[in-house]
Design the sequence.
């Protein structure tokens, strides 16, 4: 019961935050002046009369506050308007978001599954050869630009070893499918981008699990558990990990939005048909309806991720009550 | 012995932090000396212009895509530029972006963190709601839009790097602001703050004479980490082709090289490694400073 109340209260609280964000996003395209003028800047083939007709078509000739209210009300029914390049923004973004989430969630899942045991091991055997090796590689991993890692992977595994395709989500013609199977072909295309994503997310999580576990292992209740004769495994995984998870959940929740916003780079490197690559292409031609749509969508998903984070706290640590 | 001397003594014993300091120092010297240690002038296509002749037997042969050699330590790219010289010139941009963006972000973060934490109440409430809104905004996407608008309206605009610095700075403060506020909430409960208030110190004096110096250690650590993050952001922006066309940056070199990575992989290797090194240097330094400055971790 309290959970539902909490959800309702939090959602109500998110409304002003969301409105503030939509207002900001909406004003960005108006900051520099008339969007049609900017998008067609330097184009000598378009006459002033045609510009005026474009404005009328997209409703950009109306007062700004009416444009905002119209955009907002259409947003509620998931209609993001029409792209300057033709086609519905909702369709473009809807197709992209599935590809983006496929990559993001797979990478997030794999990196957590790998990073948590590594971090725990590093904390348990602090300063051992393996710990020093693992945590310094993780440090390099947090410092390397994801574009550099992506290009290196493509060059080595795609070009020189020729093990994986260097881009795209599936082969363009049927005869090129891996073993003639479309699903195998898609998995084959998914491998390299997933590897890069996993490494990128993995590294900071390893360092975080390690430092968080070290902090917890110093506490008295761990000593008490050890004194009462519990084995290493039970202490590490049952008693320590649960408390060490709090900062990790914070990190993952907070950075999920950051990861989504980082999608343009990875998706461009791998020519992956997600919202990130869509955003780059459409920003290059200043297609403002698509830009607004992607920014709002990613913001919304970040808000949802934050909500899930708060709920996860309460699940992991019963002392944190949701009220 | 002062607190800072104690911290320096602890930092000196931390090998990883020292390694970070050395990396940052060496690249910093490189940025300061650029003209003196570069082999060729900036953006010079070796062999095509009189001021940078090809060191080979034929001075006017265009030196395109030459692998690393004695004349070109990191090779040349497909435009015939010496990768090593371009790396040297790019070091300055890396420091400019890192330090410039961080100065802006941390100045805002410190002000908001101090004021929100010290005054509390509705001031705190308003500032923290604002912080949450900015924290949720996908600033990287907004940065790309700003840059594209700038370069569409004024092609060849010279302020590209400045816009990158300003936008990273203007959007990166929420995380640090929350951490600084948390520290202020802790410090303001100490007796010496109450004592200072008892003898009639103004709020302004308490903020800047007591709270600010006692959160400085956190501000320093957050700064080094923010510098690292800003350098990576510039690399990502340039990689996508939204960077400043008039500045030599490692991000742009990496981006240009990635177009022709099969013909001249070395042109991308050097900028990639230098970005990683400098970012790692600042990260190592930041972690070391945190251990050296945080009194609660003292054993």
Sequence:
């Amino acid at each position: 019961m309290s959970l539902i109340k909490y959800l309702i209260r939090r959602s109500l609280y998110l409304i002003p935050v969301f409105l503030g964000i939509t207002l900001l996003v909406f004003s960005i395209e108006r900051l520099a002046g008339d969007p049609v003028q900017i998008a067609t800047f330097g184009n000598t083939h378009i006459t002033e009369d045609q510009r005026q007709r474009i404005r009328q078509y997209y409703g950009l000739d109306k007062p700004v506050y009416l444009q905002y209210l119209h955009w907002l009300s259409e947003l509620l029914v998931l209609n993001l308007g029409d792209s300057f390049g033709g086609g519905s923004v909702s369709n473009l973004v809807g197709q992209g978001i599935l590809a983006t989430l496929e990559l993001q969630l797979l990478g997030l899942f794999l990196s957590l599954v790998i990073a948590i045991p590594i971090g725990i091991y590093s904390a348990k055997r602090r300063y051992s050869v393996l710990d020093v090796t693992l945590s310094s590689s993780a440090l390099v991993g947090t410092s390397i630009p994801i574009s550099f890692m992506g290009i290196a992977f493509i060059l080595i595994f795609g070009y020189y070893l020729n093990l994986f395709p260097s881009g795209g989500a599936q082969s363009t013609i049927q005869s090129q499918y891996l073993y003639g199977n479309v699903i195998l072909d898609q998995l084959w295309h998914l491998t390299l981008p997933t590897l890069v994503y996993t490494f990128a997310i993995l590294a900071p999580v390893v360092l975080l699990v390690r430092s968080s576990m070290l902090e917890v292992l110093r506490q008295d209740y761990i000593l008490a558990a050890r004194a009462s004769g519990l084995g290493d495994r039970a202490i590490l995984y049952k008693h320590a990990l649960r408390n060490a998870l709090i900062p990790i959940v914070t990190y993952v929740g907070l950075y999920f939005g950051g990861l989504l916003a980082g999608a343009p780079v990875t998706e461009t490197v791998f020519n992956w048909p997600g919202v990130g690559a869509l955003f780059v292409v459409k920003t290059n031609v200043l297609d403002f309806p698509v830009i607004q749509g992607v920014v709002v969508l990613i913001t919304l998903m970040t808000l949802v991720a934050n909500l899930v984070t708060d709920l996860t706290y309460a699940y992991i640590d019963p002392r944190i009550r949701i009220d | 012995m002062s607190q800072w001397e104690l911290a320096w003594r602890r930092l000196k014993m931390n090998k990883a932090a020292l390694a970070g300091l050395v990396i940052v120092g060496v690249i910093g010297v490189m940025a300061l000396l650029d003209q003196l240690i570069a082999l060729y002038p900036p953006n010079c296509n070796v062999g095509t212009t009189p001021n940078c002749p090809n060191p080979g037997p034929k001075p006017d042969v265009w030196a395109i895509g030459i692998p690393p050699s004695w004349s070109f330590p990191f090779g040349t790219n497909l435009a015939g530029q010496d990768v090593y010289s371009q790396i040297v010139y790019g070091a300055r941009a890396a420091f400019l972006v890192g330090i410039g963006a961080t100065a802006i972000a941390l100045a805002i973060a410190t002000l908001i963190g101090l004021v929100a934490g010290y005054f509390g109440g509705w001031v705190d409430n308003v500032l923290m709601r604002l912080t949450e809104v900015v924290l949720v905004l996908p600033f990287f996407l907004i940065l790309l839009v700003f840059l594209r608008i700038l370069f569409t309206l004024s092609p060849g605009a010279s302020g590209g790097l400045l816009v990158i610095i300003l936008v990273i700075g203007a959007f990166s403060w929420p995380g640090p602001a929350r951490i600084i506020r948390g520290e202020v909430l802790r410090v303001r409960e100490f007796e010496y703050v109450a004592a200072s208030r008892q003898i009639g110190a103004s709020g302004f004096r308490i903020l800047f004479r007591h709270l600010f110096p006692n959160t400085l250690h956190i501000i320093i650590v957050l700064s080094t980490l923010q510098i690292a993050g800003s350098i990576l952001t510039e690399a990502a922006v340039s990689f996508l082709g939204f960077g400043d066309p008039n500045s030599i940056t490692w991000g742009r070199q990496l981006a240009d090289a990635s177009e022709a990575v099969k013909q001249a992989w070395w042109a991308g290797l050097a900028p990639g490694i230098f970005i990683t090194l400098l970012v790692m240097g600042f990260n190592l330094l930041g972690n070391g400073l945190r251990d050296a400055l945080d009194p609660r971790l003292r054993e």
Q: What stands out?
A: The two ends of chain A are 11 Å apart (CA to CA). The mean pLDDT of chain A is 81. The CA atoms of residues 54 and 157 of chain A lie 47 Å apart. Chain A has twelve helices and no strands.
